[in-house]
Design a protein that fits this description.
The chain is mostly beta strands. Helix content is about 0%, strand content about 25%. It has a 5-stranded antiparallel sheet, with no helix packed on it.
């Protein structure tokens, strides 16, 4: 799916969120990455195979 050089990380790669955004819908709270991952504003993910990755925000320092 990715035509960038160097190629963006695949959807099953640990750094998958580093892929380029190809469709952004901030009003709806999601973006489509070139590797087929849907990234939600709460940091949750929907992978191309239908797998859901729960939000993974960094813990806030006290």
């Amino acid at each position: 799916m990715c035509c960038h050089y160097p190629a963006c990380p695949s959807a099953d790669s640990p750094d998958r969120e580093a892929s380029h955004v190809i469709a952004a819908h901030p009003d709806q709270g999601w973006s489509l990455l070139c590797n087929g991952v849907v990234l939600f504003e709460d940091t949750g993910l929907l992978l191309p195979d239908g797998t859901v990755v729960a939000p993974h925000r960094s813990p806030v320092a006290a």
